[in-house]
Design brief:
Elements (H helix, E strand, L loop, with lengths): L1 H4 L3 H14 L5 H6 L1 E9 L5 E9 L1 H17 L10 H5 L11 E5 L1
Length: about 110
């Protein structure tokens, strides 16, 4: 029922104004110093597992740099365009090619 309200322009306008008023992005200095730490774990049917941590530069910058790099590789003919994850396209260690990234995997 509530989701239907989001289709009304006055409700959308109100929510947009609230977001603009209350949600602030990072400034340039915060983006330069920021970082993100990611954790993941996988386990098979036998109970064997691996887990890992990745540290990357601030996420807006990481996304921008990796997208530009991937587009450049597609344009240069190094990889094929299409729907595929970056790790399947460029390898599991691709994130390490982005300056400031670290990866640690243990099992």
């Amino acid at each position: 029922p509530m989701i239907g309200l989001l289709g009304f322009k006055p409700i959308q306008d109100f929510l947009k104004k609230m977001i603009e008023k209350n949600v602030k992005g990072l400034n340039e200095e915060e983006r330069k110093k920021g970082k993100a730490i990611l954790w993941g774990r996988v386990e098979n049917k036998e109970g064997k597992f691996a887990e890992g941590y990745a540290e990357v530069i601030e996420t807006y910058n990481f996304t921008a740099k990796s997208c530009v790099d991937i587009i450049k590789q597609v344009q240069d003919g190094c990889v094929k365009a299409g729907f595929i994850t970056p790790s399947k396209l460029l390898g599991a260690d691709y994130l390490l090619s982005i300056e400031g990234s670290k990866l640690e995997i243990s099992n």
